[in-house]
Specification:
The chain is an all-alpha fold. It is elongated and about 55 Å long.
Length: about 140
């Protein structure tokens, strides 16, 4: 099970790396005025999203496996963590919608909005780590 836990941690770190970087690309896309640079950033965003999506699924699969193997279902901190993970999956899919808007050249949000949007996974990561380490309830 330590192998599974190690693999899960690597997948979590990789998924978060994508969730941190993709909205940062969106910040740059929202500010870009040159067509060639916009297209290059768009290509980067597409490739990153396609790369990170299977990592999300591996994170979820290994997390569920660990949950079923280790944790009883009456741990309230785990339910709070799972709620935050569900929110991250939603965030991941919102990123897909935002990417589609950039692809269609129909983004209406400012780079400042994307800077704030980019902070959401940071806050979620902080809370999840605190829940897992402290197990406060």
């Amino acid at each position: 099970m330590l192998w599974l836990k190690s693999f899960h941690i690597v997948m979590v770190v990789s998924w978060f790396a994508g969730l941190f970087y993709l909205p940062r690309i969106f910040v740059n896309l929202a500010m870009e005025t040159h067509e060639a640079a916009y297209d290059r950033l768009l290509l980067m965003a597409r490739k990153l999203y396609r790369f990170v999506t299977p990592i999300m699924w591996l994170t979820l699969a290994t997390g569920i496996w660990l949950w079923l193997a280790y944790f009883p279902f009456n741990m309230n901190w785990m339910w709070a963590k799972l709620t935050l993970v569900a929110g991250l999956v939603g965030y991941h899919h919102v990123c897909k919608g935002l990417l589609r808007a950039f692809e269609a050249r129909q983004n209406l949000k400012s780079h400042i909005w994307f800077r704030w949007f980019n902070e959401i996974p940071v806050i979620v990561l902080l809370v999840v780590v605190l829940l897992v380490v402290l197990k406060p309830f």
